[in-house]
């Protein structure tokens, strides 16, 4: 081997060594930290061993036996094409970050569940119907056979009146704290178990520390969005709402995983965080905000349900879209990280009104429909985190 090739090989090996050691062990008290005994905690996890243990567990559990098992060498695109229309879930025993990223890239929402008293499993979900908000599109897809209605983002002016001057919005400013808050709010049955969140952290940190992480993680990047209440006198900030999610680089789709809010002490905090997040995603040129399962507060933003086949086309970039005027990317989310933004100004600039004018109005003005047309219903329609 030539000196040049030897040097390049050594650099690649060193890069891999550094990459795999970017994270400390997860907190010993994190949700589910003690529910992945040996040999299930192996990283890397040999495929043959995954299959062996998968077969053994399926024989012990009718719940697992009813679901397809995925080893980390599964060709996901081919598997998705053959998925039974009546199934949402699959299961896996591999927690490696690049496997999690590949699941994300192929449209699965990577979750986890407790399968036995002392064991959690990875539970990838590809919904039969996916709730989606089309941020930079309207009308219908370019495929004439498709009948997806793409309605513009809807934010009402009343929400601006509820947004305090002390509220600050950040991007990826407290990733770990958002995970912790989600786990706490959703309780002991929260699916954000430690092995899964550790993979989330590896992807989150890896993309920010290593130039080659884009290829390793298939262009998948994790983000958090936070809403803070800042004390004017002390400058102390309290995290009052936030969410965790990931984005595909191409096509531009952001998927929400989980979130939390403080409805008691800070009414509408979840709604304000959602609204600010949607505006930032739209400004960054994202086409679709994938909410996962449909819920009322998501539909109030103008999200619609998309059949699995059509959602998979969106994820693969084979579903043509008719782009609205706001389709061009003006700034990336990465450029906004580690910066404090006044939440009221984000909403006010989007709606075309100031906080003062919103306070002076009766709240019956028209909201912005996401394309500057002002034909929303102005009823503060974003609700709940």
Structure explained in plain terms:
- The protein has 385 residues and is an alpha+beta fold.
- It folds into two domains: 19-125, no CATH class; 129-360, Aminopeptidase (3-Layer(aba) Sandwich), CATH 3.40.630.70.
- The protein has 14 helices and ten strands.
SSE topology:
Layout lengths: L2 H17 L27 H14 L1 H4 L10 H6 L15 H9 L3 E8 L2 E7 L3 E6 L23 H4 L5 E5 L3 H12 L7 H16 L3 H4 L3 E11 L6 E12 L4 E9 L7 H15 L4 E5 L3 H4 L4 E4 H9 L24 E2 H9 L3 H6 L25
Parallel strand pairs: 7-8
Antiparallel strand pairs: 1-2, 3-8, 3-9, 4-5, 4-10, 5-6, 6-7
Helix pairs in contact: 5-8, 10-13
Cα Rg = 22 Å
Strand tally is: 10
Shape: globular
Return the domain count. Answer: 2
* CATH C-level name of the largest domain: Alpha Beta
The secondary-structure element order is HHHHHEEEHEHHHEEEHEHEHEHH
The profile of the biggest β sheet is: 8 strands, mixed
CATH fourth-tier homologous superfamily of the largest domain: Leucyl/phenylalanyl-tRNA-protein transferase, C-terminal domain
What CATH architecture of the largest domain do you see?
3-Layer(aba) Sandwich
Helix content: 25-40%
The order of strands across the largest sheet is 9-3-8-7-6-5-4-10
Strand content: 15-25%
Determine the number of helices (DSSP H or I, runs of at least 4 residues): 14
Distance between the termini: 58 Å
Which residues sit in consecutive blocks of at least 5 with pLDDT less than 50? 7-22, 139-145, 322-330, 362-385
Average pLDDT level: 82
Instruction: Return the structural class.
Output: alpha+beta
- CATH level 3 topology of the largest domain: Aminopeptidase
């Amino acid at each position: 081997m030539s000196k040049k090739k030897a040097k390049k090989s050594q650099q690649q090996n060193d890069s891999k060594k550094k990459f795999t050691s970017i994270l400390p062990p997860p907190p010993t008290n994190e949700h589910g930290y003690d529910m992945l005994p040996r040999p299930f905690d192996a990283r890397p996890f040999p495929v043959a061993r995954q299959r062996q243990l998968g077969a053994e567990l399926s024989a012990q559990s009718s719940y697992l036996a009813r679901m397809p098992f995925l080893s980390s060498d599964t060709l996901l695109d081919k598997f998705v094409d053959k998925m039974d229309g009546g199934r949402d879930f699959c299961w896996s025993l591999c927690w490696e970050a690049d496997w999690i990223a590949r699941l994300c890239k192929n449209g699965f929402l990577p979750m986890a569940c407790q399968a036995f008293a002392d064991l959690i499993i990875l539970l990838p979900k590809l919904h039969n119907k996916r709730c989606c908000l089309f941020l930079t599109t309207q009308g219908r897809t370019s495929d004439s056979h498709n009948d997806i209605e793409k309605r513009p983002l809807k934010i009402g002016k009343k929400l601006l009146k509820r947004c305090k001057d002390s509220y600050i919005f950040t991007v990826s400013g407290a990733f770990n704290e958002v995970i912790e808050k989600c786990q706490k709010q959703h309780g002991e049955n929260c699916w954000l178990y430690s092995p899964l969140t550790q993979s989330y952290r590896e992807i989150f940190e890896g993309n920010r520390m290593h130039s080659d992480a884009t290829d390793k993680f298939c262009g998948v990047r994790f983000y958090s969005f936070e809403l803070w209440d800042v004390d004017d006198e002390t400058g102390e900030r309290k995290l009052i709402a936030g969410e965790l999610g990931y984005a595909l680089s191409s096509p531009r789709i952001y998927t929400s995983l989980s979130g939390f809010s403080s409805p008691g002490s800070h009414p509408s905090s979840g709604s304000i965080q959602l609204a600010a997040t949607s505006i930032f995603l739209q400004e960054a040129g994202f086409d679709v905000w994938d909410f996962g399962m449909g819920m009322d507060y998501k539909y109030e933003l103008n999200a619609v349900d998309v059949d699995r086949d059509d959602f998979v086309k969106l994820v693969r970039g084979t579903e043509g879209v008719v782009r609205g005027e706001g389709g061009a990317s003006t700034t990336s989310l990465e450029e906004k990280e580690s910066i404090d933004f006044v939440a009221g100004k984000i909403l006010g600039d989007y709606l075309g009104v100031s906080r003062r004018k919103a306070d002076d109005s009766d709240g019956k003005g028209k909201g912005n429909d996401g394309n500057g047309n002002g034909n929303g219903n102005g009823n503060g329609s974003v609700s709940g985190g």
